[in-house]
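Field reference: "sequence" (input) and "structure" (output). Example, Chemosensory protein:
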Amino acid sequence: MKVLLVLALAATCILASPGPRVKRQGLASLTVDIALRDRLFMRRQLNCLLNEGNCDNIGRDLKRIAPELLRGQCPGCNQKQVDQARKVMTFVSQNYPREWRRLLGAYAG
């Protein structure tokens, strides 16, 4: 569940940076849904987080913020971002259970 939080928050934080809030939040929601359905994208991010593959910008951001997120901290997050993170965590824990356990061990330790 926490890895999903990481993925969702990374996507929403990246998209919700400077700019019109309403448009960006809607885009972030759509982007999270699209990302979750993209198995290649998910595999790349999980491999990055597990140090088993190269990292793109999103993966590097995820690795940087993962420890805080897995401790339940989300500085600067709004309720929408927290809700999206929960959605992502649920998805990853249900669809990538082995990777989920490994991520918890690596980042929540």
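The first helix runs from residue 2 to 15.
DSSP finds six helices and no strands in the chain.
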